[in-house]
Write a structure and sequence with these properties.
CATH architecture: Orthogonal Bundle
Distance between the termini: 69 Å
Mean pLDDT: 92
Radius of gyration: 22 Å
Largest sheet: 6 strands, mixed
CATH topology: Cytochrome p450
Organism: Streptomyces tricolor
Pfam family, one: p450
CATH superfamily: Cytochrome P450
Shape: globular
Strand content: 5-15%
Number of helices: 15
Number of domains: 1
InterPro entries: Cyt_P450, Cyt_P450_B, Cyt_P450_CS, Cyt_P450_sf
Protein name: Cytochrome P450
Order of helices and strands: EHEEHEHHHEHHHHHHHHEEEEHHEE
CATH class: Mainly Alpha
Structural class: alpha+beta
Oligomer: single chain
Strand order of the largest sheet: 1-2-3-9-6-4
Family: Belongs to the cytochrome P450 family.
Length: about 400
């Protein structure tokens, strides 16, 4: 006897993450999910476990503003994006990103002054110097042929900036960039990822220990001094905060620099607009952040209680993935969302997340992107791609979307 066909509503849930069919657009399924089932089930590619996807802008904000969800990745049901053995997961300390209040609140309060708008105004001149120096070097290399913008500009600028902020020797940047790549790659082996975590932890621990003995004028030293005046965290917490700033402080911005340059080169009308009206660049930065939404599932959560969202009951213990790339292409908020428009009022985008865990380094990222894009297109007005977009390698295998290389000439 043949088994009866499975009803359509019982079909196997889609696998996550979903691949982008076009480098400039979110996965095609996101638009359908937003309209048909904005809170829907999926199966995680990393371990086959179920999780909820949230694809609508208003529901994304509602979920991340709800105190009944947790960022704690050690909780059962948390939707991990990379494979981590349970014994390893339970043995490592939580980072700032994975803490819930009140622990998260304590660490955020310590870090917030380092990323204030006023602090960014003070840093802007130094960032401008770094960008100019890197473009000088890039122009010198370009005399011999095409240059990879990723290695010449996109990686060095945020790496130099975060090294100066933290007080990390820049000569070590190659090592922590490799560790960051291994930690954020979907497809690397458990063993190699574990080695990267171990080496990075050991490196940052040594750095913090040295600054405890001999402080300098840098963020890590100020965190140590703040904690001595008002004890709130342990040595290991300062190591964890420093590690997080070191990895996230360059990886996301580096990817946005390369992607933003590519997008503007491929949309010459938009590039012409910001060249004609330089005051548009802050808007262009917001639009590019919305357009790419490179950390699509960076706000993973687990439900602490049963939650009603979008007409669906999410049970306590269920994993949830609010997708900022889906929410940032919600037609209800951003008309014609797949079109790049540097005049768009895109500040309501969710590229930096939402709620208590909203990215603490967003002011730094905005400022760096503004300086890099403005300076590059002013100083190199004939910049163009040296390879077709179809031949470029995009980071479909990583947690943070980006480009492996971007050959350019002028």
């Amino acid at each position: 006897m043949t088994a009866p066909a499975e009803p359509a509503d019982q079909a196997a849930p889609p696998e996550f993450p979903m691949r982008r069919a076009c480098p400039f657009s979110p996965p095609a399924a996101y638009a359908e999910l937003r309209e048909r089932e904005p809170v829907s089930r999926a199966r995680l590619r990393v371990d086959g476990k179920p999780a909820w996807l949230v694809t609508r802008h208003d529901l994304y904000k509602k979920l991340l503003g709800d105190e009944r969800v947790s960022a704690n990745l050690k909780l059962p049901g948390y939707p991990l994006q990379v494979p981590v053995p349970q014994e390893t997961l339970q043995s490592v300390p939580l980072t700032f990103l994975s803490m819930d209040p009140p622990d998260h609140t304590v660490q955020r309060r310590m870090l917030a002054p380092e990323f204030s708008v006023r602090r960014m105004r003070e840093l802007r001149g130094r960032v401008q110097q770094i960008v100019d120096q890197q473009i000088d070097q890039m122009l010198a290399k370009g005399a011999d042929g095409p240059v990879d913008l990723v290695t010449a500009l996109a990686l060095p600028v945020p790496s130099l900036v975060i090294c100066e902020l933290l007080g990390v020797p820049y000569e070590d940047h190659g090592r922590f960039e490799e560790w960051a790549w291994a930690i954020m790659n979907h497809d690397i082996s458990d063993e190699d990822r574990g080695v990267a975590h171990y080496e990075l932890d050991r490196y940052v621990d040594g750095l913090v220990t040295a600054k405890e003995r001999e402080p300098g004028d840098d963020m890590i030293s100020r965190l140590i001094e703040f904690n001595r005046r008002t004890p709130a965290v342990e040595h290991s917490d300062i190591v964890s905060m420093s590690k997080l700033m070191l990895v996230t402080g360059h990886e996301t911005t580096a990817n946005m620099i390369a992607l933003g340059v590519l997008a503007l080169l491929e949309h010459p009308d938009q590039l012409a607009a910001v060249r004609a009206e330089p005051e548009l660049m802050p808007k262009a930065v917001e639009e590019l952040l919305r357009f790419f939404s490179i950390s699509d599932a960076g706000t993973a959560r687990v439900a602490l209680e049963d939650i009603e969202l979008g007409g669906v009951t999410i049970r306590a213990g269920d994993g949830i993935l609010p997708l900022n790339n889906a929410a940032n292409h919600d037609e209800r908020v951003f008309p014609d969302p797949d079109r790049l428009d540097v005049r768009r009022e895109a500040r309501s985008h969710l590229a930096f997340g939402y709620g208590v865990h909203q990215c603490i380094g967003q002011n730094l990222a905005r400022m760096e992107l503004d300086v890099v894009y403005s300076t590059l297109f002013r100083r190199v007005p004939t910049l163009r791609l040296a390879a077709p977009v179809e031949e470029l390698r995009f980071k479909d295998d990583a947690i943070v979307y980006g480009l492996y290389e971007l050959p350019v000439t002028w």
